[in-house]
Each structure stands twice: as structure tokens, then as C-alpha cells.
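User: Teach me something about this protein's shape.
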Amino acid sequence: MRVKPIPGRSTAAAEGDVVVLLIGMRINHFWGAHHWLPVLVAMPRMLRELSRDRSRGLLGYTLLSGSPRTYYVVQYWESKEKLYAYAAAPDMLHRKAWAMVNRKEKKSRQHVGLWHETYIAPEGSYESIYADMPPHGLAAAVGVLPIEERGRRAADRLAHRSSTERKG
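Assistant: First, the predicted structure itself:
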């Protein structure tokens, strides 16, 4: 489905803190596909699982490729508590996938690298601008506002405070 650009300038409708998870993998040895392919296919399955149950806290995501060897996802979450809860939930795919990786780690270590970084951005420490873009990144996760609602300058958007804190 092709998404049309929003004419002019807009900003993300984020309120409160923003939780950003960057998570990815690197294929170290292409010939070890039986080691890295299960890791590669696990992420889209987890994203589908989370997309079916919005109460788990995933607001949105973007799949990216850094090279033929590196793949990662930028994820936006309602709260760090919901992120932690998903990661530890015994009935969810993440826990099962992580257990599989840990069982095979000694043999897979040379073939596939894994990483993640989590950032908690308090309200007032992030801002965004999108010019003639379809909803993207944070705006795709939380919605779009006309730039005038938050300020034309980055300093104005950083100074924005929500009237009510988002509950996690």
C-alpha cells in the first residue's frame, strides 16, 4: 500500500516520555545460514505478534537494513515497563526465541551477532519535523500534528509539555 505524503511540515503527536528500542543482527558468516536464518525470521514474527495485541505496548516500528549483513528495527513503546513485560512474558515469542538463541549460542556465536539499545527520552528531550513526508518513525507510531501545534522552531517543540501524562 502506498502512503501519500502529508503536504507541508508536521511533527509527531507524542505525549510524555518516548521509549525507543533499537534491535538488530549482523550476519557474520553467510555460509552459516542455519545459524542466522532462524534469528532473521524471528523478528517479523514477533512484530506480527505485537501488532495483533496493541495492549502489549508496541506503538510502531520501522524495519531497516544497514547492509546485506545488518538488519535492525527501530521500535517505539508506550513504556519501558511494557517493553520489559513483553521481553519476559513466557507465553510470547520473544522468550521462546531468546531461549533458542541461548541454547545454540556457542555454535552460533561466530555466525550471527545480536544487539539492542534502549533509550528512554523524557518529554522535553525529543522533537521531530517531517516535510512533505508520509507518517514516518515516531509520527507513524503516535500520529501526526501540524507543525504549528508544537512550534515552528525545534526549541519550541522541545519546550512542549503535555497537559496530562501518558500512562504506562
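Now, about its shape. DSSP finds five helices and seven strands in the chain. Residues 33-52 form the longest helix (20 residues). If you'd like, I can walk through any region in more detail.
User: That's plenty for now, thanks!
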